[in-house]
Design goal:
There is one protein chain. By secondary structure, the protein is of the alpha+beta class. It folds into three domains: 112 residues, Penicillin-binding protein 2a (Domain 2); 65 residues; 346 residues, Beta-lactamase, CATH 3.40.710.10. The chain is built from 23 helices and 25 strands. A hairpin with a 4-residue loop joins strand 13 and strand 14. The radius of gyration is 36 Å and the shape is elongated.
Length: 630
C-alpha cells in the first residue's frame, strides 16, 4: 500500500494574509475598547461623580462628635419664670480603640472608682462593641464637676477616656405639672429606628411623656458637631477640630396659669382624681391636675429604680387621669339627655313623670336614689336639678332610644378623640346595639338603654370630655380644640414664631333655641338642685353646672364624685371658665367634687389663694389632716 505525504503551510494557503490582518484588527480593537472604557470610567469618577466621592472621602476621614443643643425651656402663660430649664452637667465616654488591650481592665476599674459605680456597669456599657473600635461609648451621665476634674487631672492614667458637656433637664415646678410637662430620657434603639431620619442619634435625649414628647422636635433644637481628621484606623491626624455650633431648641409658652394650677391642686388635695379648668371660648387649658403625681426630676438625675417603683404603684401615679383614664360619666350625662329631649321634641319639657323612688323593669328593680323615697311628679327642669334617675330612665327608654342617645352624645364629642396636644389621650366609649353584639355577642336590652340614660353601663369618658360638654353649652353649640401650647418663641430674641389660634373641633346641629334653655336649667341646678348647699356659698361668681355620682362595681358602697360647671353663667363665653372635678371611688366617700369646684371658682373670680378661698367659703372645717390614700 502506498501513502501520499501531505504538508500544510499557512504562508502558502490561499487567503492566509487576510486572516492574520483580521486577527490583528480584532486584537487592536479590543485594546482600544478597553482603554476607552477605562477613560470613560475615570471621567465618570472624577468629573461626573467626583463630588460624591469627595464627600464620601471626607466622611471616612473625619471623626465626628455631636455637640448637643440646649433644649428649649417651658413657661406658663405669663412667660415670666420657666417651669423647665437646663442645668449644666457632664458625661464620660470611653473609646475602646484608644486603650491598650493589656490596660483595659485597669482603666475601667480606675474610672469606675472615680465615678463611684461598679466596674461591671462599664463592662456592660462597652459589651458588644469591637475592642479596637474608635467610636466613643457613653458610660456615665449627670457626672458632677468635681468628678470631671478628678478624671481630667488623671487623664494620663486614663487613655481612651473623654468627657463632654451634657445638660440635664431641671423641672423647677413639679407636683401636678408632672403629667402635663412630662419628662425626658435617653433614646432607645426602637425609638432611634423611627426617628433616625429626623436627625436623631444614639446619644439623643428625647421627650418620653407630656409636652416634652408632644413637642420634642421643637424643643430639641439642632445639634452641632466637632470633627477631627483621622487616619484609616481612626487615630487622630490633626488636633485642630472643625466646630459647627448647635442651635438651641425653641421655648414653649403654655396656656397654663400656675396660680390656678396650684389652686386646683390644693383643692383636690391628696384624693385620687383629676381636675380640668379651661377657657371654653378658645379651648385653652388653664389647669390640669391628676393625683397622685410624681417628680420628673427622678428620671433626669437617673435615680435607680425610679420608673419601676412608680410603674408598680397600685395608684398609678404615672397616669394622667384627666385625659388618659376613662370613667362612667354618671349624672353629668343627664345634661346631654336633657339637650337631646329638648332638641327632639319627643316629650314636652313640662310633661311630668312620677318618681316613686323605684321602678320595675324586666326582672330587675331600679332604685332612683338611696335613701330617697321618691321625687314625686317631675318635669324636665326639675328632673335635671334633682338628678332624678326614674325620669331619665323613662325618657331614655320610651322617648329617645339608644341610637338617638348615641347620636347626641357624639354631637358633644363623647366617644371621640379630643385631639389635645398630649400623647395617648383616651377617646372613651359611646355604646350602641351593634357595638354590644360585636363585642359581647349579646342583644341590646331596654335595661341597657336605661343605664346609658343616667351615664352608667358601658359609657366611658375622660374628665376632659365632660369639661368639653360644658364648654359646648357655654358656646351654644361649639367646642374648641383643647390645647396646652399657646406660643412658640425664639430662645434668644423671645420673638413669637408661632401663636396657636382657636380651632373648632365639634359644631353641633342641635337647634339654637335649645342652648338658652339649657343654661337656665344648669343655673337652676345650682340654685335649687342637688348642689345648692355647696355652690351657693360662692358669692364671687354665679355658677351653673351639674353634679354626678357614678356607682363603681366591685367596690362596696363607693362612688366616683363628679362636678362640672361654668361661671359666670350668664356672661359672654370669652369671660367664662369651665371647671370639671372627678374624685375616684378609691377615696373615702365625701362627695368632694362640688366642694373642690367651688373653691376653684372662688379662687379664680375673687383672685384668692386656696387658703383665702377656704376662709371666704367657710370650708376650713371640712379639711382634715390626711395622708395619701392607700
Amino acid at each position: 500500500m502506498q501513502f501520499t505525504n501531505f504538508s500544510f503551510d499557512l504562508k502558502k494557503q490561499p487567503g492566509s494574509g487576510k486572516s492574520k490582518t483580521h486577527i490583528l484588527f480584532i486584537f487592536s480593537f479590543l485594546i482600544v475598547l478597553t482603554f476607552a472604557v477605562y477613560i470613560l470610567k475615570l471621567f465618570s469618577m472624577q468629573i461626573i461623580e467626583g463630588n460624591r466621592y469627595k464627600k464620601q472621602s471626607h466622611t471616612i476621614s473625619q471623626r465626628l462628635r455631636v455637640i448637643p443643643a440646649q433644649r428649649g425651656e417651658i413657661f406658663d402663660r405669663n412667660a415670666t419664670l420657666p417651669m423647665v430649664v437646663n442645668n449644666d452637667s457632664f458625661a464620660v465616654d470611653i473609646t475602646p480603640g484608644e486603650i491598650p488591650e493589656d490596660k483595659k481592665d485597669g482603666v475601667y476599674a480606675r474610672l469606675a472608682s472615680y465615678l463611684g459605680i461598679p466596674k461591671s456597669q462599664i463592662d456592660a456599657k462597652t459589651a458588644g462593641h469591637k475592642k479596637n473600635s474608635y467610636t466613643a461609648i457613653e458610660v456615665a451621665s449627670n457626672v458632677p464637676f468635681q468628678v470631671i476634674s478628678n478624671i481630667a487631672e488623671n487623664s494620663f492614667d486614663l487613655p481612651g477616656v473623654s468627657r463632654r458637656s451634657k445638660p440635664i433637664r431641671n423641672y423647677v415646678e413639679t407636683g401636678s405639672l408632672a403629667h402635663i410637662v412630662g419628662y425626658v430620657g435617653d433614646i432607645t434603639k426602637e425609638e432611634l429606628k423611627v426617628l433616625y431620619n429626623k436627625g436623631y442619634t444614639n446619644t439623643s435625649i428625647i421627650g418620653k411623656t407630656g409636652i416634652e414628647k408632644q413637642y420634642d422636635e421643637l424643643l430639641q433644637g439642632k445639634p452641632g458637631s466637632e470633627s477631627h481628621t483621622v487616619d484609616v484606623k481612626g487615630r487622630l491626624v490633626s488636633e485642630e477640630p472643625v466646630i459647627t455650633p448647635p442651635i438651641s431648641g425653641r421655648d414653649l409658652i403654655l396656656t397654663l396659669d400656675t396660680k390656678i394650677q396650684t389652686l386646683a391642686e390644693k383643692a383636690l388635695g391628696e384624693r385620687v382624681g383629676a381636675v380640668v379648668v379651661l377657657k371654653p371660648a378658645s379651648g385653652e387649658i388653664l389647669a390640669m391636675v391628676s393625683y397622685p403625681y410624681f417628680d420628673p426630676n427622678l428620671f433626669s438625675t437617673g435615680t435607680s429604680g425610679a420608673y419601676s417603683k412608680l410603674a408598680n404603684d397600685p395608684l398609678k401615679p404615672l397616669l394622667n387621669r384627666a385625659v388618659n383614664a376613662v370613667y362612667p360619666p354618671a349624672s353629668t350625662f343627664k345634661t346631654i339627655m336633657t339637650a337631646a329631649l329638648l332638641a327632639e321634641g319627643s316629650i314636652s319639657p313640662d310633661k311630668k313623670i312620677e318618681c316613686k323612688g323605684k321602678m320595675d323593669y324586666g326582672d330587675r328593680l331600679f332604685h332612683c336614689h338611696i335613701g330617697v323615697p321618691g321625687h314625686g311628679y317631675m318635669n324636665l327642669k326639675n328632673a335635671l336639678a334633682q338628678s332624678c334617675n326614674i325620669y331619665f330612665w323613662t325618657a331614655g327608654r320610651d322617648y329617645l332610644g339608644v341610637d338617638r342617645i348615641a347620636f347626641y352624645s357624639k354631637e358633644f364629642g363623647l366617644g371621640q378623640n379630643l385631639s389635645i396636644d398630649l400623647p395617648g389621650s383616651e377617646k372613651g366609649l359611646i355604646p350602641n346595639a351593634r357595638w354590644k353584639e360585636r363585642v359581647y355577642h349579646e342583644k341590646w336590652l331596654g335595661g341597657d338603654t336605661m343605664s346609658m340614660s343616667i351615664g352608667q353601663g358601658y359609657t366611658l369618658v375622660t374628665p376632659l370630655h365632660i369639661a368639653n360638654v360644658m364648654a359646648m353649652f357655654v358656646n351654644e353649640g361649639v367646642i374648641y380644640k383643647p390645647h396646652l401650647l399657646k406660643e412658640v418663641r425664639d430662645p434668644v430674641s423671645s420673638e413669637v414664631i408661632q401663636r396657636v389660634k382657636p380651632e373648632i373641633l365639634f359644631k353641633s346641629k342641635i337647634p339654637e333655641n335649645v342652648w338658652p334653655v339649657m343654661k337656665e336649667y344648669l343655673r337652676y341646678m345650682v340654685t335649687d338642685g342637688t348642689a345648692q348647699g355647696v355652690l351657693m356659698k360662692n358669692k364671687a361668681v354665679a355658677i351653673a353646672g351639674k353634679t354626678g355620682t357614678a356607682e363603681v362595681s366591685g367596690i362596696d358602697k363607693s362612688w366616683h364624685s363628679w362636678f362640672v360647671g361654668y361661671g359666670p353663667y350668664d356672661a359672654d363665653p370669652e369671660d367664662a371658665v369651665v371647671v370639671c372635678v372627678l374624685v375616684e371611688a378609691v377615696n373615702p366617700w365625701e362627695w368632694w367634687a362640688p366642694y373642690a369646684s367651688t373653691i376653684i371658682f372662688q379662687g379664680i373670680f375673687a383672685n384668692q389663694t386656696y387658703d383665702e378661698s377656704l376662709d371666704a367659703l367657710h370650708f376650713r372645717y371640712l379639711i382634715k389632716p390626711s395622708g395619701r390614700q392607700e
